[in-house]
Design brief:
five-stranded mixed barrel; about 220 residues; mainly beta; about 0% helix
Amino acid sequence: MGKIALLLAGLLAFAACERDVYNEGTGAYSLTRADFVEAYTDGSGAAHYVLTDEGDSLRPAPSIIASWMQRPDTVYRALYYYNKEEGNKATTVAIVKVPVLAVVPAWKLKEEHTHPVKFESLWLSSNKKYLNLGLYLKVGETDGGAARQTIAMMRDTVLANADGTATACLRLYHDQGDVPQYYSSKFYASLPCSQLDCDSVRLTINTYTGTVVRTLRIRFAD
């Protein structure tokens, strides 16, 4: 599969996406489920259990080993494809790393790239821990294979609303770099709500069909 790495420089995190890596979990694996999870690695670097956004704790048998899980005793964000077995056991079909984006104040960036993407979805995870973003990026292979895109989240300001709540105004940072735009590749990223000291977010995204603005509540009164 053609791969495109997304280098989140400086304060940003490294991310990678892979063409057609996301699917609906059907077909040959008709019983396969797909959930966004936190994958917990043990001392050997293998994921010995995962926690879904719905709060289900699953024990993969055997433990999951993936090339991008390089650190022991670490929590990774992932999209997990699996077959549910008896109890809380799971048979792994595939696991895909979901980049966790840092929120960077716009004034700290030397350049504010907002190259277009195709917007698909924005939603709050069931456990209210993550703001999840679904996009399609234009990608393509190059001779050297070193072309890179950059994805991040910029914060412009935080608005104080009349009802006493606060709204963080975010913009998607996207630098197409030298990556050819041959085909679309689905891309998911997560943003920890703990990074956002606010009650809601207003996200502005530049797309191929114009500017998209979405506002989403992320904090709710007890």
